[in-house]
Structure formats: structure tokens, C-alpha cells
Amino acid sequence: MFARVQHDDFSQQTLYDELCVNAVPQGAGAIVTFTGLVRDFNAKGGIQGIELEYYPGMTESALDTLLQQATSRFDIVEAGIIHRVGKLANHAQIVWVGTASQHREQAFLAATFIMDTLKQSVPIWKKEWQGNQASWVAAKADDSTAAMRWLQSDKDNTCDNA
Q1: Is the entire prediction scored with pTM above 0.70?
Q2: Domains of the chain by range and CATH?
Q3: Residue-wise pLDDT tens digits, 95-109
């Protein structure tokens, strides 16, 4: 498992290869990756990039915890997260998630869980730039709904097992 916060761009192929080094010997038959890009718009119109800030140490720890949660929840053999920080231009790569499992369903579910939960549980803050003005971005209701779906499924599973 690996999780990193970095300023520099990343190579999707290099990260895929890093994931495979441990996943293939463990019987991985499916690898799912997701790469998020900086959009060039928000609800108010066009933007000229974003700026991401984080809390060193705490952010990496939260990413590690998220990987541990995914590993205990899904049948995956390997996973990784890379999240960039600093000022990023439109269409730049911002986040990469990779999961590996013996079967595709678990790899897809784990990757979705990580992305849905990451936005709610990892201390990374975003500003959007419009011209020379930057404004902090508030959490979106859709992101909260996506994360809550996983919490609700935990509650449902607990109730079923009682």
C-alpha cells in the first residue's frame, strides 16, 4: 500500500507499475485506476486553476487510514493514492487512486469507496482562481451524499448481523 502527497505531477504508468509490483504476486486479476483532473469551471463559470493546501503529517496519516479501511472492507491485495497540492492549472492531474484484487468487482468498489471517502475524511483544502481572485471551496452536498452512502451501508450491515 502506498499513499503520498506531492507537488509534482505523476505518471499514471509509473503508478500502475508500482501497484503491480506487489499486486501481481498476490494473485491480482483486476486493477482499477482513477485519475482526477482539475476542471476549468465551477457553478459560477470559468476558473483559471486551483490551489490545494494540506496539513503535513496529518494528511498522509488520513490517506494511510483510508487505505487501511479499504483493505479491511474489500477483498483487495494492493492499493495506492497520490494527491497533489499547490497551485494547479486547469486540466492538470490532481489525484490518482489504484486498487488491485483477484476479481474486478472488489477492485471497483474499493476505488469508488476511496474516492468517495477521500473528499470527506482527508484534510486537503481547495481554492479556485477566477482572474486574480481566489475563493475557498466549500464541501459539496453531492460529495457528502457519496460518503454517507458508505456509512449507511455499514449501518445496514450491522443491523443485518444483529
Answers
A1: yes
A2: 2-152 (3.90.1170.40)
A3: 999 999 999 999 999
